[in-house]
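REQUEST FORM: STRUCTURE PREDICTION
Request ID: SP-0412
Submitted by: Lab K.M.
Chain count: 1
Length (residues): 201
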Amino acid sequence: MIYDITQPLFECCVFPGDPKPEKKALLRIENGDVCNLTQFSMCAHNGTHVDAPLHFLKEGKGIDEIPLEKFIGPAYVAKHEGDITAHEAKGILERAAAAYDGAQQKILIKGKAVVTFEAAQAFAEAGIDLIGNESQTVGPENGPMAVHLVLLGAEAVLLEGIRLDHVPEGVYYLNCAPLNLTNTDGAPCRAVLIPITKELC
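STATUS: Completed
RESULT:
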């Protein structure tokens, strides 16, 4: 079974102030054209997407400079509601490590959770590769900068705008490889989870 945890792009949630994705039909067979051809435009942070360090750090790496290993591999889905404390962040990491070796490197938070500054520090100190959540931003929506600086400064990838309501807690194989956009602060991705079974080990 494969869980698609990606928002449909043209119906997606958009961070306040960001432009919405748009599409335009350039050619249509029904109009006598030889094929269907669509043009679209979007912000790099619309819908389900990943943030690169360049998003908040002037000399940070662009999305094309991040190793694909950061986006692909064992991951742990943990349910949480409300603010995540440093103690709770450490608990999530411990449960992930106990569930599957390496799953603590990629943490996905299910629910209406907010990564606090203290939780971000705990995740960064643990050296995680990636943290994802269902909100359009990791950290408080009214002030995400501090959390972004801590995590992106540690070169942790931020996977934002995922959908986990249909995904049980546990260990999965994650693939959220982004589009290869040169020197860009973020990129859309198609994020999927595959339950880890003995056949995959």
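NOTES: The chain has a mean pLDDT of 95.
Reviewed by: T.R.
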